[in-house]
UniProtKB/TrEMBL annotation:
Region feature (Disordered): 1-39, 226-255, 1059-1091
PANTHER family in the record: INACTIVE, TRANSIENT RECEPTOR POTENTIAL ION CHANNEL PROTEIN
Transmembrane among keywords: yes
Protein known as: Globin domain-containing protein
GO molecular function: calcium channel activity; heme binding; oxygen binding
GO terms of biological process kind: calcium ion import across plasma membrane
TM ranges: 679-699, 720-739, 759-779, 854-876, 882-902, 914-934
Residue ranges annotated for the Globin domain, each copy included: 63-201
Length: 1091
């Protein structure tokens, strides 16, 4: 049963045109396809009695088992599958029996045991499930025949397989295997075996000729000389045909009418060239449509269901053609092109094979085009005639019928009713769109099928689903043409889906559906060394692809996803090559960081980061080599800075940022790229801070009584520079950022209600905005501006740029407050320089983190001040300090701050009620709350101290990314060149490994490493071979041996307990158990010694 699981129902052979009356039967046939004969005038029916006795390979027709025999076969097979733990186990049982009977047959099957076992059971299950449909059974059997063309299937071998399968059935379900059922199995297996022999004998040579000549024509290139080197055939039997009379480097060919075209270099170009030369330019439109699918049809000539699907799609395209379609024209051009491309190997057998192939294609396409005319209009009219109530009723009826025919389908359609109706609506929409835009819909259906691979959807559910649709639509008493048209389009859609699911259902995808890391490792172990990465990263069906890794992440199969990342980022090596999936991972998924950050709670991100680091287990001079493969974390594929690394900062995880790989990347970017540029930008701001301090705090206090014109000019100049160089750029920057965020509708919400531009989401930009407002108000209250019109007036201090005019004096108080806020804000913004020292930065962050405890203390003190001030005021005392509530609150605040005079306390003793309240207040605030504050600060500090280094690195990393973003491309390119990421780096001395990494030395005791991180293997170095089983390397590990010993001890203990309960008989048992225990202990001792 070769390649059944991957190729599924795709079958071989060519079909005769359907009689007009058989259209309904064709539409009702199974979605896996229908074979209507192999160029035989009449369908031959198999002799059941002959099939029971022996293999019949002289004829191949439809097999019709009696109803009772058919029922016995299917029920016995279902019972056999139910008796096994899983289908894989059933396949393993069949596989084992077959090759135990004939070990020499194993050389015929190159695939791994687990894959072959799965194909055995899937192929047999498909055969037995189609027994009730003889036509579909014949198609499936043809499939198997064409899939075994390269294997010499003989009658003795068929008998061997048949007897082995019957032996398995008798051993597992012998009690229910009746004579009728056994006869049915004999007939079925003999029928399939005879069909394989028949197909191989009758059609194998033609299919082989088609494939080999097509491959030769596809890769053919025109040589410089027809007889150059005298070579006709290239490597691996692939011809290197030449075009007679043409030269590859020769002049362009002149066409009719003076047109010039290039020399054709492949089949498509040669076809179009010959079509133009032969005068078929008027048919170029429909010929191009056929040419687009011609390769798929040729390569699937041995798969009649796939071939029929391609013909159906092509028919949908051709039925829209306005040109007259003359199929003989395409045949003539096709044969001429093939003769031109492979002239040295072309012979009579090629002429016969290609003529046979095209004649069958022509019949299939003609028949389908004739049936398709008017179907689109029928489907369109039907769908437009449905109102909301009719659609709802139709959907209910569809799912009711479907669940009756396939009860297991309820396990996959668990969504709400509205969701199920939505799916049904999409089905109707697709049934019309397949007529309107067939090629685009095939792409969408392929993508949908790949998603169903991830859902683990059984293909057995598609036939009853389509049947439910057909019955529901027919029950609506609509036009018979509309019913048949909808049935045909739904069948085509389902065939495409089934094919996509079967081709995409690799064993890796099945492991994802079970979320079993063990099954995944078993599945991937059979992959070749060169294809192992692609098995995990890309499954392609047609032009659509799906990533198993992303599907595992998005579907919640995190155990398999973790195992995938570990497998991809494990360094493996043989004598010739290193294999490491880092480049493949990031090339396929450049956004892998964002994807893993979205599910960071599952621990996938640390797994990936661990795989980007290699440490040597050897040390030299107390130092250890470490290779960080961080090329893709630093740069994109085009060499630009990888800004997606910012997601690691946005997670705000102090533990993740301290991961060795992440810490190394940001430390290197900071020290070698960002620190100098950041310092340059802050030097300018440092100069502005000095200027503000000079203009606001120093110059106004120098020679206040005897100001000179030079002093006033300096004050004016310093303030003007501060306004222009400090306020101007800040104002422009904030206006621009605000406008940009408003246009993009990018907001953050204060208290979940008040919108604010998103760029104000951090404290620094918010402080800058506050500084802008303060400095704008300062400009409006600037004393120098107020005195410009009256500098030389009649007032003390008059003169150039004076600040002592009456108008300025009136603004003095407001301006001084604004001035002090401006100076404080400048000093506050200067604190970002602390990131040059992680210890200082961590200290500052610690202070900010414990401020919340101080806020809580102030809140409690405020509450107590308000409460006690109100209480004292209610006593009716005439003391000045507590006469009113505000006066009492002020006095209590001075007591807390230690500013209340002692002599006033002495005077308060004459007022016992007031004094007693003050004593209670002092105990509550100065003793209880103050000590509680100390305890809270201590606890908060201990809590946050462990993470402060991580938060400091987060702050620096954020600045690093922002700084590098603003760098010129030339500077970034020079930095990348200095890293030499394209050069291969060593592992241990003399062991040159892969490129894309940076090597450093770290202290040997920093990260002790006792095991080799690289998995090295001997034996063959062929890239086609899979890696040897790594589990064998762990069989002798101490942990596994200790677990084995533990199981022996537990088993022996249970036996001893049974012996104690069993009297004299138990004594013997106990002795046996003691002996077993002793032998187990001895075994364990020897294991430990060997360890």
């Amino acid at each position: 049963m070769q390649d059944v699981d991957e190729d599924g129902h795709d079958v071989a052979g060519f079909t005769e045109p359907l009689p007009e009356g058989d259209e309904e039967a064709s539409n009702l046939s199974d979605i896996s396809g229908v074979s209507l004969g192999n160029n035989q005038p009449q369908e031959v029916e198999e002799d059941i009695d002959a099939l029971i006795s022996d293999v019949q390979d002289h004829v191949f027709g439809e097999m019709r088992l009696p109803e009772d025999v058919l029922h016995e076969v299917q029920s016995t097979w279902t019972a056999f599958l139910a008796a096994m733990p899983s289908r894989d186990a059933a396949g393993e049982a069949i596989y084992g029996v077959v090759f135990d009977c004939a070990p020499e047959l194993q050389s015929l099957f190159k695939t791994a045991r687990s894959v072959m076992a799965m194909r055995f059971v899937n192929g047999l299950n498909l055969i037995f499930s189609e027994l009730a449909r003889p036509t579909s059974l014949k198609v499936v059997t043809e499939t198997l025949g064409f899939q075994h063309l390269d294997i010499e299937v003989t009658t003795p071998r068929v008998c061997l397989f048949r007897d082995a399968i019957l032996d398995v059935l008798e051993s597992e379900v012998g009690s229910i295997l009746t004579p009728q059922g056994k006869a049915g199995f004999l007939a079925t297996l003999n029928y399939v075996g005879g069909a394989m022999i028949y197909v191989r004998r009758e059609y194998g040579d033609r299919i082989s000729v088609l494939r080999t000549s097509w491959i030769a024509a596809s890769i053919a290139r025109l040589g410089d000389d027809e007889d150059d080197n005298g070579e006709d055939v290239g490597h691996a039997g692939e011809p290197s045909g030449k075009q007679v009379g043409e030269k590859k480097a020769g002049p362009p060919v002149e066409m009719k009418g003076g047109a010039v075209t290039k020399v054709p270099q492949n089949f498509n170009e040669m076809f179009l060239f010959n079509a133009a030369v032969m005068g078929f330019t008027a048919s170029m439109g429909w010929m191009s449509s056929v040419l687009e699918q011609f390769e798929n049809m040729v390569l699937n000539a041995a798969k009649s269901n796939r071939l029929q699907e391609e013909c159906d799609v092509l028919s949908l395209v051709l039925v829209k053609s306005k040109e007259a379609i003359v199929y003989a024209e395409f045949k003539a051009v096709m044969l001429a092109s093939l003769r031109s491309l492979v002239p040295k190997i072309w012979g009579v057998e090629h002429e016969v094979a290609w003529t046979w192939f095209w004649d069958n294609l022509e019949r299939m396409i003609k028949s389908q085009v004739a049936n398709l005319k008017g179907q689109q209009r029928s489907v369109d009219r039907f769908i437009k005639s449905l109102d909301d109530q009719s659609i709802a009723k139709l959907c209910r009826d569809v799912y009711k019928r479907f669940f009756e025919q396939a009860p297991s389908g309820q396990n996959f359609f668990k969504q709400s009713t509205t969701r199920l109706y939505f799916i049904a609506g999409k089905v109707l929409e697709m049934s019309l769109d397949i007529y309107l835009k067939p090629r685009e819909m095939i792409e969408e259906i392929s993508a949908l099928g790949l998603r169903h691979v991830g859902y683990g959807m059984p293909t057995e559910l598609f036939p009853p689903f389509i049947e439910a649709w057909s019955q529901s639509i027919q029950s609506m008493q609509v036009d018979a043409r509309a019913v048949s048209s909808l049935r045909w389009s739904l069948t085509l859609i389902s065939k495409c889906l089934v094919r996509t699911i079967l081709e995409g259902s690799t064993i890796v995808m099945k492991a994802i559906n079970t979320n079993s890391a063990k099954r995944f490792r078993k599945a991937i172990s059979i992959a070749s060394r060169q294809s192992r990465e692609q098995e995990l990263l890309k499954i392609t069906v047609g032009t659509q692809s799906i990533s198993p890794l992303y599907w595992a992440i998005q579907s919640g199969s995190f155990q398999v996803a973790r195992a995938m990342l570990t497998d991809l980022l494990t360094i493996r090596a043989d004598r010739d090559n290193y294999y490491y999936g880092c480049d493949a991972l990031f090339e396929r998924h450049p956004d892998i960081l964002q994807e893993l950050c979205a599910v960071r709670g599952q621990g996938l991100l640390p797994t990936m980061l661990d795989g980007l680091c290699w440490r040597s287990k050897w040390t030299i001079h107390k130092m250890r080599r470490v290779n960080y493969f961080v090329k893709h974390l630093i740069q994109n594929s085009d060499g630009t800075f990888n800004t997606s690394i910012l997601v690691l900062v946005k997670l705000n995880d102090p533990n993740l940022i301290r991961h060795p790989v992440v810490s190394f990347v940001f430390k290197m970017l900071w020290s070698r790229m960002a620190s100098y540029s950041f310092l340059q930008s802050r030097i300018v701001f440092l100069f502005l801070v000095v200027l503000v301090v000079v203009s606001q705090s120093i110059l106004p206090r120098v020679n206040v009584q005897q100001e000179t014109n030079a002093h006033r000019a300096a004050l004016f100049a310093s303030r003007m520079v501060a306004y222009l160089a400090d306020l101007g750029p800040l104002l422009f920057s904030h206006v621009w950022l605000s406008v940009k965020d408003v246009r993009r509708r990018s907001f953050v919400y204060v208290a979940g209600v008040l919108p604010m531009p998103a760029y104000l989401g951090n404290l620094t930009t918010l402080s800058q905005l506050f500084l802008v407002f303060v400095m704008l108000l300062m400009c409006t209250q600037e004393p120098i501006f107020a005195c410009l019109q009256d500098m030389y007036g009649d007032f003390p201090g008059a003169g150039l740029f004076t600040t002592h005019c009456p108008a300025a004096v009136a603004r003095e108080n407001v301006y001084s407050v604004l001035s002090q806020l401006s100076v404080l804000l400048h000093w506050l913004l200067l604190t970002d320089l602390c990131i040059f020292s992680l210890r200082v930065c961590a200290y500052l962050l610690t202070c900010l983190r414990v401020l919340v405890e101080l806020f809580h203390f102030c809140l409690a003190v405020t509450f107590l001040i308000a409460a006690f001030s109100c209480a004292i005021a209610s006593l009716g005392t005439f003391l000045v300090d507590f006469y009113t509530i505000p006066a009492g609150a002020g006095s209590l605040l001075r007591i807390i701050l230690g500013m209340y005079e002692n002599k006033r306390f002495v005077a308060l003793r004459e007022f016992p009620r007031v004094y007693s309240l003050l004593v209670i207040f002092c105990i509550t605030t100065l003793i209880f709350l103050a000590n509680l504050l100390v305890a809270q600060l201590t606890g908060a500090y201990k809590t946050v101290y462990g993470d402060m280094e991580g938060y400091a690195k987060l702050a620096r990393s954020s600045v690093t990314v922002d700084t590098i973003r603003s760098q010129r491309p030339r500077k970034w390119a020079a930095f990348l060149a200095s890293l030499k990421l394209e050069d291969r780096i060593e592992f241990n001395e003399g062991d040159v490994g892969m490129a894309g990494g940076i090597q450093v030395l770290e202290p040997a005791n920093l990260n002790p490493t006792y095991e080799e991180c690289i998995h090295r293997f001997g034996g063959s170095t062929s890239v086609e071979n899979p890696w040897p089983e790594e589990s064998s390397l762990e069989k002798g590990s101490l942990d596994i041996r200790l677990k084995r010993l533990e199981k022996l001890v537990v088993r022996a203990t249970k036996n001893m307990m049974k012996g104690m309960d069993g009297g004299s008989i138990g004594s013997g048992t106990g002795s046996s158990a003691a002996s077993s225990f002793a032998s187990g202990a001895s075994s364990g001792s020897s294991m430990n010694e060997s360890a």
